[in-house]
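Memo to structure team: turn this sequence into structure tokens by end of day. - J.P.
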Amino acid sequence: WGGDELVVLMESTEQNQMTQLLDRIRAAMAAKIPIDHRNLTISVSIGTALAPTDGNTPHDLLHVADDRMYKEKLEQRQNAAAADDKKA
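Reply from structure team:
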């Protein structure tokens, strides 16, 4: 992996528990950070995978989560580009 990526492993987790954690992470990352009279915002792209639905091995689960993260990252870039086009 490259960049600032991390893995969160949760044992015996249901979809709703994972969704609650993701909501908390997204909310925390969306908070504006004031620096030098400016507000810094941080974006986050998250990919998820649940066993056994998405795979049974760590390799398979990480692969699915990584693919989903990059898909979300691409969607965010496309949305940002569309927003920039509207401003121009």
